[in-house]
UniProtKB/TrEMBL annotation:
NCBIfam families from the UniProt entry: 5C_CHO_kinase (TIGR01315)
Biological processes, Gene Ontology terms: pentose metabolic process
Keywords recorded for this protein, A-Z: Kinase, Transferase
GO cellular component: a single term: cytoplasm
Taxonomy of the source species: Eukaryota, Metazoa, Chordata, Craniata, Vertebrata
Name under which the protein is recorded: FGGY carbohydrate kinase domain-containing protein
Gene Ontology molecular function: any one: D-ribulokinase activity
InterPro entries xref list: ATPase_NBD (IPR043129), FGGY_C (IPR018485), FGGY_N (IPR018484), FGGY_RbtK-like (IPR006003)
Signal sequence extent: none
Organism of this sequence: Tetraodon nigroviridis
Cited Gene3D superfamilies: 1.20.58.2240, 3.30.420.40
Family from the record: Belongs to the FGGY kinase family.
Source species, domain of life: Eukaryota
Domain Carbohydrate kinase FGGY C-terminal: 284-444
Domain Carbohydrate kinase FGGY N-terminal, residue spans: 5-260
């Protein structure tokens, strides 16, 4: 019997990727294309839906080249939770002050232009805010919509007839179906199944016009992720993509949620792990890219201050999703490295190394730090005089404060490559400690510290930078494969969570501000703690009972261990598969 195939399309922040996968799950081909990002003003980030669709078509044609089209049985899309604006004729409506930028019709997920609108929505105190951690973020769609109405009424708002989340735009472009995915509407638009839209919310924030015609501008019909849409690919879309008309199309997912489904559903049996018999609700997915998303699912709704959710059936049917995260992680590392005076020197020296060009700079910096340290144990101490506060693009959780800014303390006049490497290390360490509090936030509803048993990472992570992330959380590494494969990062990396109990603060936002101490399982402190020589976050003091790790809890705080699984993942490895999982 002839093999059949499925295509998954993943639209990230800066690139579009596609994969061709066989019905048996084998990855047959991949392709990638960059997409443009424009920043017309500070904190305004826009893209073009026309360009994004064109790049989707390019990568799909590349991965299916040479494959009989009748053997491609389905296609699915995931994308960032960006806002797409179209007029009555489904043509782009610009979202910038320059009306000539007609093709720039996408307000990106990381666009923070609507901070003031988000604050006003939070002050409304409406009940739907309980589904977003009690605080409306400018990264969600309601404040962005309100900003467009208040600032671009004539050039944008009055002309707009359709507002899509980017994943839903791609599904519509492929099928002509206006049905939205529950993933996008529940997580980013305040849609609450089974009741649906709450008209009182939209009226209370000044967007009563969206209620008209049964919410036709933002979605009258919804369906679970992966549901078949319309009659499959339209004639026009099929021609664009190089596939057959009628090819099945699954309802989309947000890119991080696609990755989350792939990670949470990944097999863990066969490695003699204590988590093998745990349910899927005993796992957590950490999706790393431009930003980082921490995702956990549960059978009952959990309300956590500063954490998005609970969102019903947004990722796994019938289960509730909570999502914490860091607004800038990969992007912050890029910013720190690329803005340093020694970046040109780094690029030149990195090119001389026989390494995959896609990771030249990171690989070189990792090796350079190892040479500077002399040993892995000394690596943490390299940056003892350099401190980074990583909230350069605000704090998504646990503080839920988009107005926060970043800091670097301990700079000198040095412009050397050594100085760049240390700044890189301190940034990674700072993100690691921030990551720790995001993880602990999602454990708080169980009135227990997160007791992670397994951390699964892709092979592209370097060992010593993993240590920066593991030490603050008390992880110890276990590698599959031999020393050679470990060094070359060819096999999966598994990290056992050492057993320890942690205290729980009544409000994780208070704990984040109060403590950044990173306790090793043996009771020692690591770089990044609030002890002298902190290499991560400056100016934080430990409060008794508010520090996770080996510190004793304050009176009245419940302490226990809760088995969970944490799997760290980069979208490039897995999010391709997600749309395929919807169809298989």
């Amino acid at each position: 019997m002839a093999e059949v195939y499925y295509v998954g399309v993943d639209v990230g922040t800066a690139s579009v990727r596609a994969a061709l996968v066989s019905s048996s799950g084998l990855l047959e081909n991949v392709a990638q294309e960059p997409i443009s990002i424009w920043e017309p003003h500070t904190d305004h980030y826009v893209q073009s839906s026309t360009q994004i669709w064109d790049k989707c078509c390019t990568v799909v044609k590349r991965v299916t080249q040479g494959v009989e089209k009748s053997r491609v049985r389905g296609i699915g899309f995931d994308a960032t939770c960006s806002l797409v604006v179209l007029d009555q004729s489904f043509q782009p409506v610009p979202v910038t002050h320059n009306a000539g930028d007609r093709h720039k019709n996408v307000v990106m997920w990381m666009d923070h232009r609507a901070e003031e609108q988000a604050t006003r929505i939070t002050r409304s105190g409406h009940g739907v805010l309980s589904r977003v951690g009690g605080i409306m973020s400018p990264e969600l769609q309601p404040p962005k919509l309100l900003w467009l109405k208040e600032n671009l009424k004539e050039s944008c708002w009055d002309k707009a007839a359709h507002f899509f989340d980017l994943p839903d735009f791609l599904s519509w472009k492929a099928t002509g179906s206006l049905t939205r995915s529950l993933c996008t509407l529940v997580c980013k638009w305040t849609y609450c199944p089974p009741d649906g839209w709450d008209s009182t919310f939209w009226i209370s924030i000044g967007l009563e016009d969206l209620v008209e015609n049964n919410f036709s501008k933002i979605g009258s019909a919804t369906c679970p992720p992966g549901s078949p849409l319309g009659d499959g690919l339209t004639q026009e879309a099929a021609a664009d993509l190089g596939l057959q008309p009628g090819t099945a199309v699954g309802a989309s997912l947000i890119d991080a949620h696609a990755g989350g489904l792939g990670v949470l559903g990944a097999a863990v049996k066969g490695f003699a792990l204590p988590c093998e018999d745990q349910p899927i609700s005993a796992r957590m997915a950490v999706i790393c890219g431009t930003s980082t998303c921490h995702m956990a699912i549960s059978e009952q709704p959990l309300f956590v201050p500063g954490v998005w959710g609970p969102c019903l059936s947004a990722m796994v049917p019938g289960m509730w999703l909570n999502e914490g995260g860091q607004s800038a992680t990969g992007r912050l590392i890029d910013h720190m490295v690329q803005s340093h005076p020694a970046y040109a020197q780094l690029q030149e020296q990195a090119r001389q190394r026989p390494v995959d060009s896609s990771i030249l700079s990171e690989h070189y910096l990792n090796n350079h730090l190892s040479s500077m340290a002399g040993s892995l144990s000394a690596l943490d101490l390299l940056g003892s005089g350099l401190h980074v506060w990583p909230d350069f693009h605000g704090n998504r959780s646990p503080l839920a404060d988009p107005t926060l800014k970043g800091m670097v303390i301990g700079l000198s006049l040095s412009q050397s490559l050594d100085d760049l490497a240390l700044l890189y290390l301190a940034t990674v360490q700072a993100l690691a400690v921030s990551h720790r509090f995001c993880v602990n936030d999602l454990a708080r509803p169980q009135t227990a510290s997160l007791h992670v048993q397994l951390l699964r990472l892709p092979p592209c992570h370097s060992f010593h930078l993993l240590s920066s992330h593991l030490d603050p959380a008390g992880y110890a590494p276990y590698f599959r494969g031999n020393e050679k494969s470990r060094t070359r990062h060819q096999n999966s990396l598994f990290l056992w969570r050492l057993e320890q109990k942690s205290s729980v603060c009544p409000d994780p936002r208070q704990r984040y501000r109060a403590a950044c101490g990173a306790a090793r399982p043996d009771g020692g402190r690591v770089a990044g703690s609030s002890s002298p020589g902190c290499a991560c976050v400056p100016g934080l003091q430990q409060h008794p009972g508010e520090v996770t790790g080996t510190d004793a809890p304050a009176a009245g705080h419940m302490v226990s261990s809760h088995p969970r699984l944490l799997q760290l993942f980069t979208p490039l490895s897995f999010s391709f598969y997600i749309s395929l999982l919807q169809l298989l």
